[in-house]
Amino acid sequence: IRDAVPEKDPIPGAVIAVQTFGDFLGFNPHCHILVTDGCFYGGRGMFRVAPLLELKKLEAIFRHKALRMLLSRGKITGEMARMLSGWKHTEFNVFCGNRISPNDDTAMENLARYIIRASFTQKRMQYLEQAGNDDAVPCILEAQGG
Fold first, then answer.
1. What pLDDT is attached to residue 120?
2. Which of 18, 48, 132, 145 is deepest in the core (most CB within 10 A)?
3. Sheet holding 11-21, edge to edge
């Protein structure tokens, strides 16, 4: 996005929410990333909207950089990175929704609600009083049997 904005020293904005849905063999960690459609620049908070980006190219760049980061940190092997790069459905998805204006409170609330939703359902939870807990903080544990 920086390269798409002609201003000097442009700064994009982003919010990342890490989510860990699933459990055991179905564990599905992923990130939801909200990114500005342009960059801030100058000392007075000016904002320049970037030209539309090609989503498939953006997905490829994101996939490449994410795999390179995981490889450099020893989280995956070179063989695993090559295998993931070769998959037809890589699960590196980019969605570009409608632009949300600063005054669209409803759209911002809906987006925030989606981002912060719990990664578990209350139906699978049970409340337990913890005996002997000096600070009186109750514990919540996942209920057995789903």
1. 64
2. 48
3. 11-21, 28-41, 46-49
Task: Match 């980019």 to its residue by tokens.
Answer: 94
Contact 119, 28 (CB under 8 A): no
Place of tokens 């005996």: 131
- Work out whether strand 28-41 and strand 46-49 pair parallel, antiparallel, or are unpaired: antiparallel
Distance CA 11, CA 1 (A): 9
Residue 21 contacts residue 14 (beta carbons within 8 Å): no
State how far the Cα of 25 lies from the Cα of 34, in Å rounded to an integer: 28
| Other Cβ atoms closer than 10 A to 39 | 22
